[in-house]
Amino acid sequence: CVVNLSGCENYGDNLFGNDNCRNACVDFYNHMVSKYNVEKRCCMIGASNGAQTTINASYLLGELVKAVILQYPLTCLVDHYEAYSDHRAGIRNAYGITNSSITKEELIKATATHDVKHTNVVGDTKVGYFPPTKIYYSETDRVVNYQVNALSLFELLDSSLKVVEKVKCGGNHGDYSHFNPDEYLEWFEKY
């Protein structure tokens, strides 16, 4: 098995999967395919805030994404906004929201096409494909609430008959126990 590994920075941190993030990943993908001898179909890994970026980039790339792995993922902007107050200003900034007392309905509208739980449309195009997804989460994560993010996404995908697995890990947010390269390769090799 030949594995090509590469990664990209999404034009800065704390962009919560917005257009800059997902477009940076798509630009990186297009660069890699046009400049190097790599497969056109890729696999993606996203951790924390990067999980939201991975999901949003895979919306744009569609079936070019074979499978994804999400580590201690932030997957629902609206629920995360309500559950973790330290990220509220960052989410508002990433989506150009100036009102700090925004309602849930306004937040759903402002993050539409970027929040997997509250939309399945990008622009005017319905998202018909969601790649096989493996989710690593921790019940002791103090940054990204696993119930409103990892398990919520798992239930959404599972009930939609998408290919999805979940793995409960120990430790807090970013703990190295969530990183298991052998398992990752095994997951990706299935697809």
What is this structure, in a nutshell?
The chain has 191 residues and is α/β, with parallel strands linked by helices. The chain has helices spanning 19-35, 49-61, 77-83, 88-94, 104-110, 147-159, 181-189; strands at residues 42-47, 65-71, 121-122, 125-126, 133-138, 164-169. A four-stranded parallel sheet has the order 1-2-5-6, with helices on both faces. It has a two-stranded antiparallel ribbon with strand order 3-4.
Per-chain topology:
Elements: H1 19-35, E1 42-47, H2 49-61, E2 65-71, H3 77-83, H4 88-94, H5 104-110, E3 121-122, E4 125-126, E5 133-138, H6 147-159, E6 164-169, H7 181-189
Parallel strand pairs: 1-2, 2-5, 5-6
Antiparallel strand pairs: 3-4
Helix pairs in contact: 1-2
Proportion of beta-strand residues: 15-25%
Task: Give the N-to-C terminal Cα separation.
Answer: 13 Å
Provide the low-confidence segments as ranges: none
Number of strands: 6
Description of the molecule:
There is one protein chain. This protein has 191 residues and is an alpha/beta fold. The protein contains 7 helices and 6 strands; from the N terminus they run αβαβαααβββαβα. The chain has a 4-stranded parallel sheet with strand order 1-2-5-6, with helices on both faces. It has a two-stranded antiparallel ribbon with strand order 3-4.
